[in-house]
Each structure stands twice: as structure tokens, then as C-alpha cells.
Amino acid sequence: MNCMSELFSEEQSKSKERSIMVLLLWLGLSLLLAEQSNAVRNCHPSCHCEVESFGLFDSFSLTRVDCRGMGPSFSMPITIPLDTAHLDLSSNEMGPLSDAMLTGPGYTTLISLDLSSNKITKISPNALSKLRYLESLDLSYNKLESLSPSCFSGLPLAEVDLSHNRFQEFDMAVFAAKVNGEPLNVDLSQNKLVSVSTTLHGRVLNIQSVNLSSNQLVNVPSMAGLPLRYLNLDANPIKKIKKGAFAQLKELVYLSLSGLSELHEIEPHTFSDLQNLQVLDLSNNSNLKSLQPAVFSGLESLQELNLSGSGVTSLPANMLSQLPSIKSITLGQSIHCWRTQKQGQFHRQIGQVQHNEELHCNVDGIVL
Q1: CA atoms of 113 and 85, how far apart (whole Å)
Q2: C-alpha–C-alpha distance, residues 363 and 200, integer Å
Q3: Are 249 and 228 in contact (CB under 8 A)?
Q4: Three-class secondary structure of residue 164 per DSSP
Q5: Cis peptide before 77 (omega within 30 of 0)
Q6: Which of 108, 148, 352, 356 gives 20 to 30 Å between its CA and that of 328?
């Protein structure tokens, strides 16, 4: 009898445990559904809102809101959840961006904002002033011709896409008003730029990457004073690159000068200030027929040189002495040269094998 009581008591205990587990699961599911319902309830009916959770036990969450392509009939600002971090408002034909269009609950927490393809012709000086945490801003495919000097004031920007607009002149000093001093990447490709300036007046401007490809630049713009690591000048009508064009860009690591269809000359010592440059792209410059040895003077850290699709089919005989760190060179259409070590004999006096470094190419008869 006692045995039966013990079994019955044990069964009751297990039943209670199962009931508690079911209750906890139900409560958890209810909280989850309530959270999702709340996110949907605070989301504009024409937008899609997605909650992303992070941290231990999903203790931190943010919301990604997609309001693309709603059309010009919707009034701004759009209602969004309070914890919105990423907002896509692209393709909405917004027109001029006024001070009131990006204000209200949810906008103050934005980390990234996509305003591309909106036919934006003008941005009022304070239109972005409430976005105090904004790091990424996409204004590409609009109709911008100029920006207010205080346009980005107080924003901790890290990436700004201004490509496919109508800028003819641009002063990098517009980014001097941003806060926190973190490195900034700027895309100004596919505009109508004929002039790019950097008016600092003693201010520090931490821009590490600039894309100026596919513009109307006839000369290399002065970027002196910027701690650039990446610079792209592809597809501009530059005919000649002069000595001093890259003055004071000692931190530059990657330089692309590809597709300059009118380029026919690079002066000696043009790259002499680029002691830290690792990659130099001179590909697809069909009118560039030859390069003097002194052109490569100062490129002590260069590892990759791309001359494919250019008119240059041979290089100076003392190439290795000019480029002590070179690992790969590409010429013509399919000629690839690389640095190798030629095995030497054991030297008894110094007690080691001496190696002679050479450049080998996959095509015979290349002059190096």
C-alpha cells in the first residue's frame, strides 16, 4: 500500500512539473507574440518591420524597417517603431528634404538611413539634425547639386553615398561638422564633378576612403590633409598626371587610376609621396604606352601593380630595385609576372643559402 502511495505521489509531482513547464512555455510564447504584435502595431501599414534580437538571452533588440516604393502620396514623417535602427525610405519621390520630414519617435535611434532614388533636389540645413546616432547614409540616385555646410552637423557618420547625383563642385569640408572623429568613407562616383576641394582651415577631417570615379575631372584633385587609405579616380578625362599630384597622402594604401581613356603620360616621381601604397591599378589605359623607371620611385611598399589592358607591354630592367616589395605585376591582356626567389648555393662564410630575387612571367620574351 505504501508503495502504491509513493508511486501516486511521484506521479502527482511529475504532473505538476509538466503543468509548470507548459505554463512557462505558454507565458514565453505569449510574451513573444505580444512583442511581435506590438512591433507590427507601431509599424506603418505600408512598411515591413522586422525585430532583430542580440546579446545574452536576446536582451537587446532593434528594428529594421522597410518602407521602399510607397510612392509620393504618403506624407512624412512615416510612423515607425520606437527602437528603429535601420530605415529604408528609398524610391518614394520625396523631393526636397525639409526639416520636419525625418523627425518624431523612432528617428532619433537610427543607425542607417536609405534615401536613395527619391528625386531629392535639396536638403534643408537641419533636415538631418535629429539623427544623432546615424552612421550610414545613402543619398545616391537623387538630383542633388549642392549641400549646406552644416548639413551633417553633429552626426557620427561612417559611410555616406552621394553617387549618381548632379554635383559639379564639391568641398570635403562639408564633413568637418560631423562628430566623433571616426573614419569616414565617401562615395561621389557617377556625378558631374569638375572640381573637388578640401578647405580645412585647421580643422581635422578623418576621411579614409573616397570614390571619385566616372566624373569630369581633368586633373587629380588635391586631397592634401586627408588621411586617405583608398582613392578611386577611375573613368575620368585625365590626360596627364603630374608630379606632386598625390602630395601628403602618405597613408594611402590603394590607388585606382583605371579606365582613364585620355591618359597618355605619368610624370617621373608622381608617386614618390606614397611610401605606404600597396596596390596601384593602372589598367585599361589604352593611350598609356610607356612608363619611365622614375615613375615608380618611392613606391617602397607596393605589392600589386595592374597594367592589364593598357598600352604598356614592357617594364624597366631595374624594376625590382624600384619596387622592393612587389609581388605581382599584370601587363597587356593576359601577361602576369610575379616575384620569386632563385635558389642559390650555400655560402660557407656566412653560413646560409643566398637567394636571388627575380620576376617571372607566364609569357616568354617580356622585357623586365
Answers
A1: 9
A2: 49
A3: yes
A4: coil
A5: yes
A6: 352
Q: What are the chain's domains?
A: 31-183 (3.80.10.10), 217-368 (3.80.10.10)
Q: What gap in Å lies between CA 301 and CA 322, rounded to an integer?
A: 10
- Alpha-helical segments (H) within the chain: 2-41, 319-322
For residue 221, give the DSSP letter. Answer: P
Q: Which three cell numbers stand for residue 11?
A: 506521479
- Cβ atoms within 10 Å of 208's Cβ, excluding its own: 19
Sign of CA dihedral 282, 287, 289, 292: negative
Burial class (CB in 10 A: 0-12, 13-18, 19+), 10: exposed
The answer to whether 47 and 77 are in contact (CB under 8 A) is no
Going by C-beta distance under 8 Å and a sequence separation of 6 or more, which residues neighbour residue 24? none
pLDDT, tens digit (0-9, with 9 covering 90-100), for 111-170: 999 999 999 999 999 999 999 999 999 999 999 999 999 999 999 999 999 999 999 999
The CA distance from 262 to 271, in Å, is 19
C-alpha span between 328 and 151 (Å, rounded): 43
User: What is the Cα–Cα distance from 143 to 84, expressed in whole angstroms?
Assistant: 27
Prediction pTM value: 0.82
Peptide bond just before 221 cis, omega within 30 deg: no
In this prediction, residue 353 carries a pLDDT of 46
